[in-house]
Amino acid sequence: MKHITTFGKTGVHPPEMKLTAGSPIKEMPLPRRIELSLAQSLGRPAKAIVKAGDHVSRFDMVGEAQGPVSANVHTPISGTVKSIGTITTTDGHGAEGIIIEASDEDHAADLQSMCDAAPRIGFDAINRLTGDEIIDTIRRAGIVGMGGAAFPTATKLSPPPGSPQCEFLLINGAECEPYLTCDDAIMREMPHEIITGIEIMLKALGQNVRCIIGIEDNKPQAIKAMTVAARSHERISVAAMRTRYPQGGEKMLTKALTRREIAPGALPISEGVIIQNVATALAVYHAVVWGIPLVERVMTVSGNDYLSRCNYRVPIGTPVSDIIAALGEIPPSTVKIVNGGTMMGRAMAGIQGSTTKGMSGLLLLSSGESPQRPSTPCVRCGKCVEVCPMGLEPYLLARLSELGRTDDAAAHHVTDCMECGCCSYSCMAGRRLLDWIKVGKTLARKK
Amino acid sequence: MESNRITVTGSPHVSAQRTTQRVMLNVILALLPAMACGIWIFGWRSAAVAAVAIIACMLTEYVCARYMLGRRDSLRDCTAIVTGLLLAMTLPSSIPLPMAFAGGVFAIGVGKMAFGGTGQNIFNPALVGRVFLLISFPVEMTTWPLPLSPDGMTGATLLSAMKESGVDASSIDLIQISLGNMGGSLGEVGAIALVAGWIYLTARRIVRLVIPLSILGAVVLLAALTGNNIAVELLSGGLLLGTFFMATDYVTSPMTTKGMLIYGILIGAITFVIRHYGSYPEGISFAILIMNGCTPLINKLTRPRLFGERRKK
Q1: Which ipTM did the prediction report?
Q2: pTM of the model
Q3: Which CATH number fits domain A123-290: 3.40.50.11540, 3.30.2290.10, 3.40.720.10, 1.10.357.10?
Q4: Mean pLDDT on A184-207
């Protein structure tokens, strides 16, 4: 283990609330009905390549990527396509989606195929794969960044011609969001699989790329497991990082692990860096070694009053109501349901929608955990400026946005805000700074 | 079912424990030792002055907020209590109570509410009140009761004694003045109590070290360069009260570390210049007010560095 590093003096350290830290990954029973969103990555939604009434088998591709910033969608269950049209998403908006229902025979066949599963290729075969073959497999498997941004992994691994040479593959195991422990769980339980996934990506990136796995020091077991698994690999090292939010942000992670700063508006590759999440590395392993497309993920279902909280392996497209039905009722004290972590996650209007590739958490929060605070006048204490990891002036941006002075907000770099929420979190006046900054950002982008 | 209880807001969904009210209550707590020191040295009249100033501030704030801004809850953040207490602590304990009341009304009415209330004012309201009284009632504001004297004898403060009667700084008993045994306003004596309050606020991370250290650093440096007695310079007058509790006011001080450094150094320098070369014996009030006025400019000149921004060559 190297010395402990971090990205600087900005950011915050909210109560970690890793309630599901030691808990093993639980398996969700295969659902009989899934609602697959076609808009699961950045960029354009995938296009449905099946029609209502078609029969599909487990792992079949049902949605085709539209352009490089879009990703294929596969079905985690066999069944009959019920309908193609608008489905409800977790945030209450509609999205283009496919509904698939399994009959008893389909369900039985899926359970059998799970028992029969075997690796597609052996470990020596990995070494014979070429970079292009690997990237093609990753692209076909519909793998996207699983930390939340959902950028297609294959596109990230093949930077456009003319970009700087990639020197570092940084693997994000920071998991700096409170509550979430899904990355921790896979690092503890499947370190060798993750390392193999990393090796495969390194092979695609070429000889001169080194890999650093960054893990925050509140996950000692994960650090240990990954360090042991990476021991025989010269090009892969594990770095412990001092727990600090938002360390999992790409700019902060790059700073913490390489001391390099990505310029405003630039991509990590401008500093010779490519970043992938640990869950993405695991998905790469499954795609290349087992031939399984991205159809499931581990997510954290948690909340202080939710006693059946756990890390849960869930097929993508599972209705949220099925998860609640399988794990247990929502506690009556719940005042907020969040998709993701408490700092950047999105509040849900209720138990609705279905899981996606980027959904890392489902939180059921009581009023004690997520209190509503009244908003009082700004006392210009400067805390928001002190904590902003991007070096912005949140109090000013929020005010300018509120007044509709979009040009001034843009001149003060409102569009560089990464929406980490450190400003709203630390505001002693309870002002919802980020809400206004998001408004200003949207307006500034429109101009 | 649940849907009527579930709230939807933007992220983040958690917040730090700190609120404005809690911070202000902590500031009041930190001021209490020095206030107790004032009562011990100058008698219960100190408490009466403080009570009158606080009541004046709260009344003025309530009336202005209620009838001018249409806000009913503005007293809840406790900023008016802090202003009243700070104002009282800059006054002589012998001041006629109606004057203390007038000071409180002016501090909040003109110093704060005229600008739009909490967070909007440019100048520290307590100091606005104090300077208003100093200019309006110069005799009452510079008549200092002697410490621990029950018969109401008055005398000069250390700084005016040194300035006007040529008292030698080396003849002053440092232990006596750090315990507060000197003439002065009811809250500025008692250096040990002030330092204790400041350490408390610093330990609770309510105030940062930058402003106090840069003010004191500037004063020490200038005193050393001009051959003045450093300890007397630090312990006399309202320097500690102003440095710890007024210059660090969130609203009227700069936002960034660099800005705070500039602000602090200039406050220290102006204080020193007024003390030694101006016509007033003490300069910390004016120094803070002058730099309060410069704060918007300092904020503009000391913006934080954007992450990843390259220095222009």
Answers
A1: 0.90
A2: 0.91
A3: 3.40.50.11540
A4: 95
